[in-house]
Amino acid sequence: MEEFIIIEEYIRHSHIEPQFIALLEENDLIHPKAIENKRYLHPDELSDLERYARLYYDLSINIEGIDAIHHLLERIRALQEEMQDLRNRLQLWE
Amino acid sequence: MAYIDYYKVLEISKTASPEEIKKAYRKLARKYHPDLNPKDVSAQRKFQEINEANEVLSDPEKRKKYDEYGENWKQADQFEQARQQQGGGFGGGGGYTYHDFGEFSGFGSSGYSDFFENLFGQATGRKSRRPTAFKGQDYSGEVHLTLREAAKTHQQTIEVNDKKLRITVPAGIANEQQIKLSGHGGPGANGAPAGDLYLTFILQPDPVFKRNGNDLYMDVNVDLYTAVLGGELPVNTLDGQVKMKVKPGTQPGSKARLKGKGFPVYKKDGQFGDLIVTYLVEIPTNLTERQKQLFKELQQNK
Questions:
Q1: What pTM was computed for the model?
Q2: Is any Cβ of chain B less than 8 angstroms from the Cβ of A88?
Q3: What ipTM goes with this model?
Q4: A34 beta partners
Q5: Tens digits of per-residue pLDDT, B254-283?
Q6: Which of A43, A58, A77 sits opposite B129 (nearest CB)?
Q7: Which residue of A has its CA nearest to B129?
C-alpha cells in the first residue's frame, strides 16, 4: 500500500504557504487527490514539490519561471539520456 | 588543507558591502543551484563553495574572523579557545538549503570544507530562510561492475551510511544507467517519507567484448587456411564456447552474426542480443623453405 502525503500535514511541517501549493496545482505542476475531504499528494510528486519550493523560496523564481524550468529540466534529462546512449555506442570505435 | 579565498569564490572585492555580497551570492546561486544543474557534480561542488563563502561573508562576526585569521588559519586554534572562553557562538548566515547532497555521494556529511571547519568548527549549523525539508535526503552513489558481471542477474552488497544494503542487479543493465531505490535515502522529518537512493551503474570496458545496446562485438583470429578453405572455429562467447562455421573464402574484416549470443536484454528474461564476430585473418610468417615453395606454386597457378 502506498503512503500518500496529506497536504495539510506537509504544509504544517514545511512552513510552505497553502497558496503556493494552490499555484502549483493551477499550473499543472502537481496533482493532489482528494479523499474524504482530505487532500493527498502521491509520494512520487513530493520530490517535485520540494524542488519547486526550493526554486520559489530560495531562488525567488516565480511560478511561470518554475513552469519554464520544469520543461527545460525535462529536456535536459532527455538529452542527457540520449548523449549517454551515444557515448556508450561510441565505445565501439575506441 | 588549503586556504580558500571566499571573496574570489563570490567574485567580489574584499571591500564589498553586505548588499554586494548578497547580490553576488544570489546571482551565483541561480547559476549553480543543484536543482538547475542535474547530474552535474562540478556545479554542485561550486554551489557548496559559494554557500560556504556566503555563510562566512554574510555574517559580520565570521567575516571579521576570516579577514583577521583566514590566511593564517593555523593560528585560529588559539582564537577558537578565546572564543569558547567568551562563550560566544556564531549564528547562521542565511544560506540556501541544498537537499540533494547525500552523504553517500562523497561530499562529506557536513558539506563544509576542512578549511571552514578548522576556522569555525563543525557545529555552527546552517540556517536557511526556509529550513524544513520534509522528505528525507536523497542519496546518490555509483556501483562499478565489469561487463561480464552486468551480463548476469546478481546480488551486490553496498554500504550506504554504514548500513549494508543488498541489491539485485538485473542482467543487461546499461553503462551509466540510474536506478532509484525508493525509501533508501535519509530519514524523513516527523513521519515523512524517507529520501530515495539513486544508484548509477558504471560498467568497465571488457578486453574482449564491446557492447552496442544488446549486441556484443568481438574480433576472432582465423588462420589463413581456414579462411581460404572454410572450416570450423571455436569461439568463446559470454556463456561458453561455440563452434562457428567459417565459409570458404572468408575475407579479412568480414563479419558474422551469432544470433542470441550477445548481451541479455534488460528485464526481458531469456532474450539476448547478437554476437557480431569480425574475422582477423592471420597471414603466416617465418615460412619454411617447403612452405615458401608451395606458396610460389600457388602464385604461379593463380
A1: 0.74
A2: yes
A3: 0.85
A4: A39
A5: 999 999 999 999 999 999 999 999 999 999
A6: A58
A7: A58
